[in-house]
Amino acid sequence: MDVILFLIFALIAVVCAINVVVQTHPISSALSLVGVMGSLAILYLLLGAEFIAAAQVIVYAGAIMVLFVFVIMLLNAGAETKKGRSYLIPGAPLLVVFLGLTAYYVQRLFPANTMVTFGGFTKGGPREIGEALFTTYLLPFEVTSVLILVAIVGAIVLARKEIE
Amino acid sequence: MELLDSFIVISLIKAAVIFGVLMTTLAYLQWVERKVIAHVQVRPGPYRVGPHGLLQPLADVIKLITKEDLVPPYVNKLPYLAAPFLAITMALLSISVIPFGPEITVGPVKTFMQMTDLNIGVLFILAASSMGVYGIALAGWASNNKYSLIGGLRSSAQMISYELPMSLAIAAPLLISNTLSLRNLVEAQSGSILNWNILGGGQIVSFIIFIIAAFAETNRVPFDLPEAENELVAGFHTEYSSMKFASFFMAEYANMITVSAMATLLFLGGWKAPWSAEYGSSLVPAAIFGIAAAVLFYHGANAHRKRDKLTFPAFGAIFVVIAAIFLLPMVQGWLLPLFWFSAKTGGILFLFMWIRATLPRFRYDQLMGFTWKFLFPVAMLNLLVTAFLVAWFAK
Fold first, then answer.
1. Which residues of B touch A34 (CB under 8 A)?
2. Which of B65, B90, B117 lies at the terminal end of a domain, its last residue?
3. Is there a contact between B134 and A69 if contact means CB atoms under 8 Å apart?
4. Domain final residue pick, B12, B44, B65
């Protein structure tokens, strides 16, 4: 059952991811990206990480992608003009080779017994994540916060109208 | 295998019951709303279809189903068709984690009055509601109509903005109850009205912020700018007809029910009575229906119109029966929690309608200024103070 669900949603994620690139209209691409986020959330859920799955949907699919879609709608971006698909002739085999090599080395580097099994990930609750953020990963967490603050200030400075 | 079977069967029955009750409530909520607004404005409201317009929802459903299902030629087909589906799915999805009452025993089966109890119930509802934005945004964009587009844009901007104070307002009672499961949240508030988060937890500010943000999240007056009819025709659903229009309509009312139920669970003690049964809280529903019956009998005896002599006592008799049912010990276990839950949720729904009949619409810049410059800082401050107090008393 777990394996079937995994295969279904992994397939959806991959198809949506390809669709992000293939689609010519920005809205369709953005919506495919939402599909990727949604299927990823379900994969997290299959592993047993309920909180991370919910956070994935709320933050990525629900907030960031809505902003993407909003901006695309606001700018009313039209569809791209189609170019030839000649790049596929060298590109597709190269991509397959690259993915195959990556999969092979991941298999070699990480032995199977250290991997998480379905439903076996128990440390993903809000309590564990909060503790990890404020002890082990305190410095990266704070640095990221400052970085985001700088980005917000920068956006406001750039967008502000000069007052004479 | 037997466990699995019974789990599936129970879940299916629960889903059917909740779906049936919810759909009826959705239809009648609209009737109630028209009646409430009508009476606020001193007019009778729907009156022709059935006694006091009681069959109006049925007539509306028939009208909506039999209308021509028009798809304009200039729309973007796929998103246009997916949008109403998305809106109604996400609206109905969040109902599945809302608990209506405690654990009950039906024959050999013990079960919770809830579809499923998630550890992250609160987050699940937030996630479902944030995905619901896509329904409206896509509907506005795919219609290829400037009014729809502006409606969709307004709605997505508004929903993103008000989600922040709403989440902060939700976080404060979660800190106090120290759980994300809606069932445990209610259990933490058991006792009397003084244990509810709104009073015992001192979360009155969070409650007010939550209610204001809930109005904006559900696109209701005074924040119904996405469908401001004097500027935007009908906003994001201008190009929709028949059942596709009805889906948006139902999604709006389902969202209203969800946020009202959320407010009840987070702040008002869920299905708990305001005071314990030792002091007679179990007699309240029976007393309310009894008084209603007495009033009806009195007016039936002194009726002005001929038919009221018959209808008033008839309804009075029905109310007496309901009052008697509330006094039966074998049903009190599940009926009383359900009564309190419905009463609280219904009270907040009434507030929605009351405000719709009373307040005018915001201007768009006021709407945005209000949330970013006032609501968000206040919610932030409130969360900080709550967090400090929780840490202080936890020692």
1. 134
2. B65
3. yes
4. B65
